[in-house]
């Protein structure tokens, strides 16, 4: 999940209109800079997916801060539109910022008006994880002597 969060924050930073916003991941204190993006931890709900995997649907509520409410909403909508125009695909990156060559698909990108010159960009995506399977020693040979007709 950390690679996904880093990739999302990098995408939002690169597509922020009109400059480079400050990025916050810890709790916001008074006097934070504007324009800025605040990335809290996403919430997740799980469900079975296939015989070999389960699914977690993550929802991330990114706070977009600017000088005025319309500016914040415009910035959030611009980022959401960048996601939509790229087929809801965000390139995955390593912790160093290098592209891995894989993508994550955003399922939903919504913008909501906030309070105090802020807007909320709500992103939803699914991540699949494989079940842990116990390792067993494979059977070498099976010999049946009874109940078999020749």
Report on this model:
This protein is α+β, with helices and mostly antiparallel strands and about 150 residues long. It has a single domain, classed as 2-Layer Sandwich (Alpha-Beta Plaits), CATH 3.30.70. It has helices at about 1-15, 70-85, and strands at about 20-25, 35-40, 45-50, 55-65, 90-95, 100-115, 120-130. Strands 1, 2, 3, 4, 5, 6 and 7 form a seven-stranded mixed beta sheet that branches. Strand 6 (about 100-115) and strand 7 form a beta hairpin. The termini are far apart.
Q: Which terms would index this structure?
A:
Alpha-Beta Plaits; alpha+beta; 7-stranded mixed sheet; single chain; 150 residues; 7 strands
Give a topology summary.
Layout: H1 2-14, E1 22-24, E2 36-38, E3 43-48, E4 53-65, H2 69-85, E5 89-93, E6 99-113, E7 118-130
Mean pLDDT score? 92
Query: How far is it from the N-terminal to the C-terminal residue, by CA?
Result: 58 Å
Low-confidence stretches: none
Quaternary organization: single chain
- Report the radius of gyration as a whole number of Å: 23 Å
Proportion in helices: 10-25%
Name the helix and strand elements from N-terminus to C-terminus, one letter apiece. Answer: HEEEEHEEE
Q: How many extended strands?
A: 7
Short overview:
The chain is built from 2 helices and 7 strands. By secondary structure, the chain is α+β, with helices and mostly antiparallel strands.
């Amino acid at each position: 999940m950390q690679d996904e969060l880093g990739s999302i924050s990098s995408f939002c930073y690169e597509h922020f209109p009109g400059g480079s916003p400050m990025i916050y991941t810890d709790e916001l204190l008074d006097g934070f800079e504007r324009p800025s993006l605040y990335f809290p931890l996403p919430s997740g709900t799980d469900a079975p997916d296939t015989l070999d995997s389960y699914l977690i649907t993550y929802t991330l509520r990114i706070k977009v801060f600017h000088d005025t409410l319309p500016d914040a909403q415009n910035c959030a909508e611009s980022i959401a539109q960048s996601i939509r125009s790229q087929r809801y695909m965000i390139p995955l990156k390593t912790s160093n910022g290098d592209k891995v060559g894989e993508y994550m698909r955003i399922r939903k990108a919504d913008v909501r008006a906030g309070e105090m010159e802020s807007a909320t960009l709500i992103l939803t995506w699914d991540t699949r994880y494989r079940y842990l399977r116990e390792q067993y020693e494979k059977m070498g040979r099976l010999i049946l002597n009874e109940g078999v007709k020749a």
